[in-house]
Design goal:
The protein is mainly alpha-helical and about 160 residues long. The chain contains seven helices and two strands.
C-alpha cells in the first residue's frame, strides 16, 4: 500500500488555482501542511517507520483530537513511533519536502480525479472515495476492505452508492 498526500486545504481553497498550499511560508497557519511535511520526513526513514508514524498521526488526529498542525506534537509522535528524532527534526525543517506534497496532489487530481479523502486507488486504475463512520470494529475491518475492493475493482460500472440522510 502506498500513501499519497492530498491536502483538503488546497482542493477547498477559495484563493484561486494559482494559490498552492505547498508554496506558502513556514509561518502560514495551516491545518494539515505540517502533518504532510512530517509524513514526508518520516518516509525518509523507511517504509515501516513511515507507516508507524502515519498510524500514530491518524490516531492522534481522529481518536485523541490532538493538534497535528503543531510541530511539537508531530515530533513527540515521531519519537513514539520509533523514528530517529534528530534526523526527523532536521528533515522536517527541509522545505524541499513540500515539492512532494504538490506532486502528490497534482497527480491525484490529474490522473485519478481525486477531490476528497480518503480516495482508494487499486492497481493504478479504479479509484473510489470512501466515507465511513464510525469505523468498523477491528475484527470486521479486513472483511469490509475485501468487500469494498471487490466492488470498486471488479465492478467499474458502479459509479456511486450513497445513503440518504
Amino acid at each position: 500500500m502506498e500513501w499519497y498526500c492530498f491536502p483538503l486545504e488546497q482542493v477547498n481553497s477559495t484563493l484561486g488555482p494559482q494559490w498552492k498550499l505547498w508554496e506558502q511560508p513556514d509561518e502560514f497557519m495551516s491545518r494539515g501542511l505540517w502533518a504532510f511535511r512530517a509524513g514526508e520526513a518520516a518516509r525518509l526513514q523507511g517504509k515501516e517507520r513511515f507507516e508507524g508514524f502515519h498510524l500514530a498521526v491518524l490516531r492522534a488526529r481522529h481518536a485523541e483530537k490532538k493538534d497535528i498542525s503543531n510541530q511539537e506534537v508531530l515530533i513527540t509522535l515521531a519519537g513514539g513511533a520509533g523514528l530517529d528524532v534528530e534526523k526527523f527534526r532536521k528533515d522536517l525543517a527541509d522545505r524541499n519536502l513540500l515539492a512532494k506534497i504538490g506532486e502528490d496532489y497534482t497527480r491525484g487530481v490529474q490522473e485519478h480525479g481525486v477531490w476528497g479523502t480518503p480516495t482508494l486507488v487499486f492497481n493504478g486504475r479504479q479509484a473510489a472515495y470512501l466515507r465511513l463512520k464510525p469505523a468498523p470494529p477491528p475484527e470486521e475491518s479486513v472483511k469490509l476492505f475485501e468487500e469494498l475492493f471487490s466492488i470498486i475493482y471488479h465492478r467499474p460500472n458502479i459509479l456511486e452508492v450513497k445513503r440518504p440522510r
